[in-house]
Amino acid sequence: MSTSIAQAILQGANKLRKAGVPDERREAGSLLIFVLDRDRSYILTHAEDELSDEQVEKFIESLDERARGKPLQYITGRQEFFGLEFEVNSDVLIPRPETELLVEAALSLVSQNEAPFICDVGTGSGCIVVTLLHKLPRARAVALDISPAALAVAERNATRHGVRDRLSLVTSDCFAGLGPASGPGFDLIVSNPPYVSERAIDDLQREVRDFEPRAALVSGADGLIVIRRLLLESRDYLKSGGLLIFEMGFDQHDAVRQLIDENAWKLLEIYDDLQGIPRTVALAKH
């Protein structure tokens, strides 16, 4: 029995709804777009086109994965961030819209005419540092991550967007892989660190809890271990007046404010995300 595009989306949406997947019709459409390697306008204008048996089989497989909770982005292997498409897999966090705020903050504080030396701590997919290098053609950067598998993804994304020649990738737990600080230091350190507390991990969506890398999510009992390290260790690797910009959890504003040593750092701004939640901290080294 033949199956049209419209029928496939309807059947897929029903399957995803029963599995508790939100926004099931759009998700089914996105999976079919991936299977057909077309855009959304194509499936709207070719709703009556019939799928091949091979396409139906691949669509069913992708629906089964999504119904089990696997994130759409890990099935399709891609996620847009700041207008660029990034490869993602289960070795890296899926780039989030709120992290675009960190990039916006950095670009607002660094002139496009400058040639900043940037360090991205916990780079994951490389979405932050690759975007900054793409927007700042004279910048150079170092990307750090404790996971060699994550660095491999970041390297492919840097190559995809033409910035690989300006990026060094180092396996490193925070700054440990750089060794003792020497030389002029960085102009800008950026980080979307792990900031989920161990007690909160079970409350996360299953897509996050069961599929995204735990080391990129969880940071001790209070979620602040890596942020403490950033505030303490970044000063050794920054130039005088250099910037530290990092993301924090939705409930960490007060705790992070208390961790900032006013003798070491000048607080430039705490930026709210689109939900009005304090999300991104920008500091300058005294």
Short structural description:
The chain is an alpha/beta fold. Helices cover 38% and strands 20% of the residues.
How would you sum up this structure, described in words?
The chain has 286 residues and is of the alpha/beta class. It has helices spanning 5-18, 24-36, 40-45, 53-67, 72-76, 100-109, 127-135, 148-160, 206-209, 225-237, 253-259; strands at residues 78-81, 84-87, 117-121, 140-145, 167-171, 186-191, 238-247, 265-272, 278-285. Helices cover 38% and strands 20% of the residues. The strands form 2 sheets. A 7-stranded mixed beta sheet has the order 5-4-3-6-7-9-8, with helices on both faces. A two-stranded antiparallel sheet has the order 1-2. The chain is elongated and about 70 Å long.
Name its key features:
alpha/beta, two-stranded antiparallel sheet, 286 residues, 9 strands, 11 helices, 7-stranded mixed beta sheet
- The number of helical elements comes to 11
The coarse overall form would be: elongated
Instruction: Briefly note the structural class of the backbone.
Output: alpha/beta
What is the first-to-last residue Cα distance?
A: 71 Å
H/E series, N to C? HHHHHEEHEHEHEEHHEHEE
Q: Radius of gyration from the CA trace?
A: 21 Å
